[in-house]
Each structure stands twice: as C-alpha cells, then as structure tokens.
Task: structure prediction
Amino acid sequence: MSKSKNLLSNIMISGLIAGSLDIIFACVFWAIKAQVPVIRIFQSVARGLLGASSFDGGAGTAALGLVLHFLIAIAMAAAYILTASRLDALWKQPLLFGCIYGGFLYLFMNFVVIPLSAASRGSADPLWIVLSVLVHMLFVGVPIALFAKRAFAPRE
Result:
C-alpha cells in the first residue's frame, strides 16, 4: 500500500471509529436521561447548519446531521494525523496526546464551533459535560492517535 493511501485509510477509519463512538454515546446518554429519540440527536447536529428548522425536516435533516457529524470527525482525524506526520511525539505517545487532543476537541467544539454556528448552546447538565469530556478524550482523541501510530510507526 502506498504511503498516501495508507495515510488516507488511517484518517478515514479513525474518523469513522471516533465519530461512531461519540454519536453512540450521545444517543445512549440522551435516550436514558430524557428519552430523546435518535433522529432528534442527528437533527441537533444539523441544527448547527440549519438552525431550529432542522427539527422540522424529518429523516432528511437527520441524515444531514449524521453526515455532518462524520465529516467533522474525519476532519478531526485528518488534523491530528497530518500534524503527527511532522511531530513524532503525537504518534509515539498516543494515549497521552490522544487524551490531550480529545480534551482540546471538546473545548474547541463547545467554545468556538458551536457558538459560531446556528446551533444553540449545548446542555449544561453536569453529568453530560463530565462524560462528554471523558468520551472525547478516551473515545475520540485516543483512537485517532492510535491510528496515527499505526500510520507512522516503523513496521517490524
């Protein structure tokens, strides 16, 4: 496999894994906490682009939200993995830097991206916030960092 194909493969797979783990957490948490249906979770992602009308769009805006969610996750993976191609520590210490990156992503999404979007501010539920930070660290940042290691570590 060529180096660029391997890099793209690691970006795509890690983004899909991280995105899946993140959205599964959100769906399970809100289903248990407030009986929120999955379609509403996906529509809430589309709200960042469409505003409150995303909740009137049925399956179409839910599908848009899911696609947007995975595009964002893949972009997050691309940013980390491409940076790791220049900063060896990022792939040599994937647990440490994956956790740091996941924490950074949580902060960036909640204090930069969401306020600049058409979405409303997220939940202030303390359990949601604590678990979201942990999920971003362990289930978003770490998988991405592990795929960076997979992409750059010498084969033995």
In short: The first helix runs from residue 3 to 34. The CA atoms of residues 45 and 134 lie 20 Å apart. The helical segments are 3-34, 38-50, 58-84, 88-92, 94-116, 126-152.
